[in-house]
Design a protein that fits this description.
Strand content: 25-35%
Low-confidence stretches: none
Strand order of the largest sheet: 4-3-2-1-5
Number of strands: 5
Largest sheet: 5 strands, antiparallel
Shape: globular
Structural class: alpha+beta
Order of helices and strands: HEEEEHHE
Number of helices: 3
């Protein structure tokens, strides 16, 4: 991961921190929140008509692994493409 350590980035996801990053010229925003006592994670592509992905957890499970393993990056997972991502501030 450019501009940061990927392990630190993933740790921030586990804590529900808001994160901004770039991938293939697109800006993304990742955030976690509590929704009716469930722990959810949402990824927004910051563009007109950008994609949005939501992973639903429950009261004891935060779906970080579901995000990390989702094949939403041209059929690849986060771990497959993280070296091409750039961690940025908003």
């Amino acid at each position: 991961m450019k501009n940061g350590d990927v392990r630190e980035f993933v740790n921030h996801i586990h804590y529900g921190d808001e994160l901004w990053f770039l991938y293939e010229g697109k800006k993304y925003f990742l955030e976690g929140w509590t929704n009716n006592s469930s722990l959810d994670l949402c990824l927004y592509e910051m563009a007109d008509n950008g994609e949005m992905h939501i992973w639903k957890g429950n009261t004891t499970h935060y779906p970080v692994d579901a995000f990390l393993e989702a094949k939403i990056w041209n059929g690849k997972t986060f771990w497959d493409v993280e070296k091409d991502m750039e961690w940025v501030d908003d």
